[in-house]
Amino acid sequence: MASILFLLFSFLLLHGAQAEIICENLPIGLCSFSIAFSGKRCVLENNVKDNGNMEYLCNSSEIFVKDMNEWIESDKCLNACGLHRKTVGISSDSLLEPHFLARLCSDSCYKNCPNIVDLYHNLAIGEGVFLANLCEVNSSKMPRRVMTTVAADGPISMAEAPTPI
Q1: Given its phi and psi angles, is residue 155 left (phi above 0), alpha (psi -120 to 50 degrees) or beta?
Q2: pLDDT digit string (tens) for 33-53?
Q3: In the chain, which ranges are continuous DSSP H helix?
Q4: What pLDDT, on a 0 to 100 scale, did the predictor assign at position 108?
Q5: Residue 160 DSSP label
Q6: Is the separation of the CB atoms in 108 and 80 below 8 Å?
Q7: What are phi and psi of 26, to 5 degrees?
Q8: What's the chain's average pLDDT?
Q9: DSSP H helical ranges for 58-97
């Protein structure tokens, strides 16, 4: 009986260790909008190598997510929110884009994609506004001057990385 319990416990421990998400071990195509087992957001970064080629790396950011870990965002949520798997960096700049904001604030994104909403909620707070207020402004088609209160100070670019050949 003790050996069965030991084997069961060992299997569960081994299985748990294999299931942990570590940003640096994720494939480039799963990096953006993922959350590691530590609760830190994964971020896709690009670097120019000595030979001039662009290299993409998945790293842990310093952004910690409360109450969420080991999360790889679904294609359904990325599509609903108007995002791409190969987004480089984390930035609030996209909150100034009405088309992106419309997708982010849509019911299919806002009500069903807690990871993405949490990320942009916190980015908006960092700029001194609430995402819910931005969504309200965007849905009511109020003048853009209200949305310009979101001013990014030198953020990391949020561009889409090219597909590797």
Answers
A1: beta
A2: 999 999 999 999 999 988 989
A3: 2-19, 28-31, 75-81, 98-105, 107-110, 114-126, 131-139, 144-147
A4: 97
A5: B
A6: yes
A7: -75, 145
A8: 80
A9: 75-81
Two tokens, residue 28 = 């480039």
Number of H helices, E strands in the chain: 8, 2
**Structure confidence at residue 165 (pLDDT):** 40
Phi, psi for residue 131 in degrees, rounded to 5: -60, -40
Side chain identity at residue 145, one-letter code: R
- With vertex at residue 72, the alpha carbon angle to CA 62 and CA 57, rounded to the nearest 5 degrees, is 55
For residue range 46-77, list pLDDT tens digits in order.
999 889 899 999 999 999 999 899 999 999 99
151: amino acid identity, one letter: A
Q: How many CA atoms lie within 13 A of 126 on its CB side?
A: 16
Give the whole-angstrom CA distance, residue 87 versus residue 73: 12
Short-list 106, 117, 38, 107, CA closest to 73: 117
At what angle are helices 131-139 and 98-105 packed, to 10 degrees?
110
